[in-house]
Amino acid sequence: MARRKESGIDVVSRLPWPACIALGIAGYISVRYVLAWFLFALGGPVGQALGQQLRQGSSTAVAWLLLGMCWVAALISYMDSRRRSQLLDTQTNLNSLSAIDWREFEMLVGEAFRRQGYNVQETGLGGADGGVDLILRKDSAMTLVQCKQWRTKLVDVRVVREMYGLLGHHHADAVKIVAIGSYTDAAEQFVQGKPIELIHGSALLDMVRESQRTTASKHKPVKNTEAFSGFEPICPACGRSMVPRANRRSGKTFWGCSGYPACRSTRVA
Q1: Is the pTM of this model over 0.85?
Q2: Strands (E), the chain
Q3: N or C: which terminus of the chain carries fewer CB neighbours within 10 A?
């Protein structure tokens, strides 16, 4: 499938939404004021004429257009961030991972790596990109990721070989292939001794659940945890482990599902 041609808003919206807002403000100031001063001061007769026109308000429309585009990109970035987070936090098993479409699957995998501390660049959401769906960066290392939303079909060695070839092409340090299902024996043998990690469905589900627990742990901690030590009940609604929490108003402790907000089941301590 041919890759859709991206607009400037598409490119900017890949940034975190606060960065989009800041970029818009910086762009507005630069076009509205700095550019006019620069042309007037250093541009010679022609530059001075252009700078004078900009000072008289010719740049206003362009500056406002740039600001508006960046703020639209900020809104898109914010909504995408919310969508990724919601996608990840509502997954419960391999069936739910199979039910979402391939774009959402790539977004979900990217969000799981993002919560592990990676800087994530999504490259495959607009179409094919040589097999690379995500580019991860962490501690100066770059990792290429391909996502395979195959539940019954095994990922064969051909796919792994292609990703290994792209390792040198992109000057990357490692490769990860993420699949809901599993891999052929030949694929498993090929990665031996190579910087390639094959992530199976069960490992992917563990990664998703760990990311969900990381999010849940960011809620207000319980002040008195001694009563909870050594005992972790199982959530009666979804089967996940429960974690100690505190009511923000009353301060009373209770057990809450580690899958929050996907599961809001609670239990009295």
Answers
A1: no
A2: 119-122, 134-138, 141-148, 174-179, 196-199, 242-246, 253-257, 266-268
A3: N
